[in-house]
Give the backbone structure.
Amino acid sequence: MTSNENDAPASDRAPRAPDETPAIRSTDLRVARGNKTILRGVTMSARSGEVLGVLGPSGAGKSTLFRALVGEIDVSSGRVELFAEDVTGLPLWARARRGISYVPQTPSVLWDLSVRDNLASYHRVVHGRVDAATLKSAVERLAQRVALEDRMDVRAGELSGGERRRLELARALTRPPKVLICDEPFAGVDPQQASRLGDMLRSLARDESVCVILADHHVEEALRVCTRAVLLLDGEVAAEADPAAFREHPLVVGRYLGSWARTMPPPPPRP
Ligand SMILES: Nc1ncnc2c1ncn2[C@@H]1O[C@H](COP(=O)(O)OP(=O)(O)OP(=O)(O)O)[C@@H](O)[C@H]1O
Ligand SMILES: [Mg+2]
C-alpha cells in the first residue's frame, strides 16, 4: 500500500495554515478556591475573526474562565495558549503585551476623570509618554471608534451605562488587541445601545481579524453577533454550536434558557 498524506501520522503532515492556529486555547483548565472547584477542565479555543459566545447560567464559571484566560487569577492546572504559545505562567500584563485585552464584568473606569482624561490615562499606561499632539489625536481616534467623541468632557461617573461600557471598550482597544475578552458588555445597556456595541464587536472580528470572546445574559444580542457559542455549565463546556443550533440545543433549553427559548424570535441577519 502506498503511503499518502492521510496515512501519515499527524506530526508528519504539513503544518496548519497560520490562520488556523487558534488565537487562544485553553486545555483542561481547572480552577479551585478553597474546597470549591469552579472550573472542571475547560478545553476551548477561538480563532482570529471569530466571535465566540461563552454562555451559561449565573455561577457557571464564565467570569472565572475569562479571568484565568487573561491571567488575572492563577489556575490549579491546565494550560492557556495564545497563538500556540504557552502563556499559562505569564502574569496579566505580559499576556496583555502579547495581545489579550479584557473588559471585566465589573465597572472599571476612572470615575472622577473625564472621558478624555480616562482615554489619555490608558494611553499613557500602554504607550508611555508621547508628545501632546500625538496623545490628542490618539485619544480622539479612540473616542471616535466607540462613538464617544461628543462626550469627551463628561465625567466618567456621569456617563450612562452604555456609554461607560463603550469607554471600557475604548480602553481595551488602546493597545490594538488580537484577542478581546468582554465579560457582559451588554449588561445594563438598552437594546439599541447593546446592538450598537454588538455591531462594534462584530466589526472588530470581521474587519480587523480580532478574536472576540464574550459572555452575556442578553442571549439574543450575544447570539446575533456570535459566530459560535459554547454553553458553560457547572465549570464545564457542555455544548458547542453555531448560534442557530445553539438556541435549540437540548442542554441550552433545559439548563439555561428554559421555556423562554421557545419565545425567542428567529435570529435577525448578522451584521
Ligand atoms: N474567589 C472566589 N472564591 C470562591 N468562590 C468563587 C470565587 N470567584 C468565584 N467563585 C464562585 O465560582 C462560581 C462561578 O463564578 P463566576 O463569577 O465565574 O460565574 P459566572 O458564570 O460569571 O456568573 P454570572 O453570570 O453571574 O456573572 C460561583 O459559584 C462563585 O461564587
Ligand atoms: Mg460573570
